[in-house]
Every structure is written in structure tokens, then in C-alpha cells.
Amino acid sequence: MLARRMIVSRANLDDAAQVAALEAWIGARSDSTPFHRPAWISAVARGTGQQAMMLVCRHGGGDIAGVLPLNLIHSPLFGRALVSSGFAVDGGILAEDAPVAEALAAECWRLAEAMSCPTAELRGGALPREGWALKTGAYLNFAKPLEADDEAQLLAIPRKHRAEVRKGLDNGLAIEFGRSKRLLDIHYRLYAENVHRLGTPVFPKAMFAEVLAAFGEDADIVLVSKDGAPLTTIFSLYHNGVCMPYWQGATLAARKLRSNESGYFHLMSHARQRGCTHFDFGRSKVGTGPAAWKKTWGWEGEPLTYATRAAPGREARDINPLSPQYQRKVQLWKRLPLPIASFIGPYISRGLG
Q1: What is the pLDDT of residues 62-78, one digit of tens each?
Q2: Which residues form a coiled coil (predicted)?
Q3: What is the rounded CA–CA span in Å between residue 122 and residue 68?
């Protein structure tokens, strides 16, 4: 049998027809995520100034056989890297078979070399072998099916944490879902507070705005408040029946009032009403508080495997804040006044990707 001829090229992301065809192909695949979509990489590009690209592998006749969404991340502090996908926890190669995946990976590395990127990173998806290093054990992903209704969802939570959720639900907290500028402004303020306490620079507000605009009804924000005072916000993405709460903001008062528990439980109900069947808590680093907290909900973590490739004689970049080289920087960042951290953070975080 003759081998199929495959052609890998870059899509024109300014061509609405090409983008629509890619969105349709990606949306039809059960193994795709929001981060594979042209909407994601283009929103990241507009919001951070980092370039978006989409590699497409086609059979000789023109049918799409695989895609690889990319962001070119450049930073004076963290160097250059070609990443699939930028600022995402997934978004690696989508391919019909292994030869298509290898063809996309090979073109990705050729492109990285042409663009003077000493590192290329593939987050999830079909993983290439030749020339790439596979890394697992650093992150866990927490996803599972939603229960049939609110009562079943509550009963599915382990007893100890179920009591915490009930406390949140009994605290008279107001819940609001929407996509307005007001909600985005509140979310960004709380998110900036949250990441500052964790010791990491806040992402540019423009990226949140661009993702919200690009995803339309496939993204929203839930606000949990008490007597008009915001406590918790959750920025969620929806894709192929999966609800993914991706960015969270919270005040110091949120823990006492259990507004995080209330917010996530109401989000599960909201997702079910939207027709979602699964809830993806997203990834957390192994051995951290967020990973332990997700387990208290009854979600079990599945190890994530990423692929990296570095130029000869170079080491792949490392942007894991748990790495020893970053721990001192994290502690210093926490001590910065919040207004200063919020001002300079976006300029630094653009290069994390």
C-alpha cells in the first residue's frame, strides 16, 4: 500500500474561512480542548503581544489530518520558546495517527530553529518521540463526570469537605454569572490579589478580555459576594460538554465564608444546566495545596505528560515556580506591595507563556 502524502503548512489566521474550518475540525474531536482552538492562541496573541501560529497537516487531497496550535513566547527574562499552547495547560498535537503527529512535531521544531527558539514545548495531545524529551510527574489534572443533579453532586463530595460546601451554601452568599466588563474588572482585581499571595506575577488584563471576547458564550465569570462585597470569582471555559474553571480570584475573607466552595458548587450546577457532562478542575502541581484541595472534592489527579525539545547544548527553559531557582524570587514577589506587583506583573508574565 502506498504511503499517504502529507503536507504541513501554516494556516492563515486572518482568513475567516480557514479559521472556521479549523474550529469545526477541532470542535468535532473528542480529544480536543479549548486551548487547541484558533480563538485561544489568537486571543493570547492580542492580549500579550506574543505571536500566534497554527500548523496544519493535510492529506494530499486537502483534508485536515492534524493541527498544532502555537504561540511564540519571547521574554528578556525567560528567553524564547515555541509553545503549544501559550498560557495553557493543554493544547498539544491533535492528529489522526502517529505519522501525522510526528510530521507536525518535526515542522514545529524546524520552525523553532528558524525563529531562534532554543526550546519548544508541547503540552498534552499526541506526544512525539524522535528528538523530544517526555516529562511527567510535575502536574496532575483533575477531571471527572458531573453527577445527575445538585443533590447527587453534593453527596458525591467526601463527607468532610461536603460539610464545608454546605457551610458555604448556608452563608447567604450572592451568586452572579455573566460576561460584563464589570465582572471582568472585579475578577481581575481579585485574581491579581490571589496570584500576588502565591508569589507569581499577574497576567495582563488584556488577555482575559480578549479570551472572553473570542470565546463568546463559551466563556463566563461567576462572582460570589456577601452584602455587595466581592469574595470569589471564577473565569470558566466551556468546550465539548466540559466546564473548565480556569482562572480564580479570591479575597482573604473568602476562606472564612467558604465562598470558594459555594462558587465551585454553583458552577457545577450552572455547567449542568448548560448541558455539560464533565467538570475539569484543571491542573495543579504535585504536592501542592491546590492539588490536595481538589482531592477533597472527590476528584483524583491524573499525571500529565509534556514533551520538550532543546537545541544542542542548551537546556529547556524551566518556568515552574516550584523549582529551587525560582523560590527566592517567589518570596521576594510576595513582599512587593500589591499596587506595584499589579503594575509590573503583566510585563513580566508575558514571557511565561
Answers
A1: 899 999 999 998 876 67
A2: none
A3: 9
Query: Which positions ≥6 away from 91 have C-beta within 8 Å?
Result: 33, 35, 36, 40, 41, 69, 84, 85, 123, 124, 125
CA distances from 169 to 195, 231, 262 (A): 25, 14, 6
CA-to-CA distance for 324 and 305, rounded, in angstroms? 21
Separation of alpha carbons 119 and 277, rounded Å: 37
CATH number of 6-131: 3.40.630.30
Enter the C-alpha cell of residue 26: 477541532
Same fold, 6-131 and 142-303: yes
Task: For residue range 173-208, list pLDDT tens digits in order.
Answer: 999 999 999 999 999 999 988 876 766 777 889 999
Query: For the chain, what are the domain ranges?
Result: 6-131, 142-303
d(CA 35, CA 84): 8
Q: Kindly tell me the burial class for residue 179, based on how many C-beta atoms sit within 10 Å of its own C-beta (0-12, 13-18, 19 or more).
A: middle
pTM of the model: 0.89
Is there a contact between 10 and 53 (Cβ–Cβ < 8 Å)? yes
